Amino acid sequence: MTTTTASITTPSAASTSATRSSDPTPADSTHAPIGGPPSSRGRRFANSFVRYGLPPLISLAVGIGLWYCVSYLILSPTRRFLLPPPHDVLTNSLLDPDHVGPMLDALWVTAKVSIVGFAFAALVGVAIGVVMSRGSLLERAIYPWAVVLQVIPVLAIVPLIGLWFGYGMVARTIVCVIIAIFPIIANTHFGLVSVDRGSHELFTLSKASTAQRLVKLEFPSALPSMMTGFRTASGLVVVGAIIGDMFFAKGEPGIGTLLDIYRARLQSDDLIAAIVLASLFGIAVFGIFSVLNAFVNRRR
């Protein structure tokens, strides 16, 4: 009886000791943060900065250096007003409230024109892309006119736009739409006609209507391509708004209007400062749509 008891209790003790030995002790437990050690996060940040942030900074420094070289080494002091050095532009224009204030007000006018023009270009462009995707006959009938909008010299038809629609907000918006609509049409049409045929057959078996097929299948599948068109058009619409400002000066002056005034008066400091502000605005708009495009592609 004693031997039997020993044979039963001995494995139990062994398993208990094994369990205790396998449990982590407070000395073995680690208290590292969830995101990894700080040194690892610092290395990842440094690598990202070297990969993505350093090249633009280097190119910016090279560009400013070349700017200084042209101002001081190529241009004579009597002709330096044609390209004043960067610090003169900064102190005389960008940091002077009397100069930069009207520029910011004009930039806001241009921004409003860009937003309205992009909205109309997006609505009309998506609608035309949908119509073109309904059949090859419609595509062959409409696509040449879309190409005409892309290749037509806008500056040549700006006087006609002014004669037909006046020289205010409507004319500026039309110029934006003409310049920015083609990428939206082309990418929307490409995305809609590239939907998987098997998915179309599944919707056919489900007896889905044309509207259901368009909303639930074609638009979600074509969204990445459409976002590419929107991103391209976002940069073009800013150019269209500035061109409209230059030619249609009635109403509130836009940044393009000031660019034309500064050019006529040979105010090089203000001219370069206005160009810098307009460029930063265009980069910001393009960056927003680039982030949206990356978000859409990541969600798929």
UniProtKB/TrEMBL annotation:
Residues 107-293 form the ABC transmembrane type-1 domain. Residues 1-40 are annotated as: Disordered. The chain crosses the membrane at residues 49-75, 106-130, 142-165, 171-193, 233-251, 271-296. It comes from the Bacteria. PROSITE patterns: ABC_TM1. Signal peptide: none annotated. Gene3D superfamilies: MetI-like. InterPro entries: MetI-like (IPR000515), MetI-like_sf (IPR035906). Keywords: Cell membrane, Membrane, Transmembrane, Transmembrane helix, Transport. CDD domains: TM_PBP2. SUPFAM superfamilies: MetI-like. Residues 1-27 have a biased composition (Low complexity). GO terms for biological process: transmembrane transport. It is found in: Cell membrane. It is a multi-pass membrane protein. Belongs to the binding-protein-dependent transport system permease family. This is ABC transporter permease subunit.
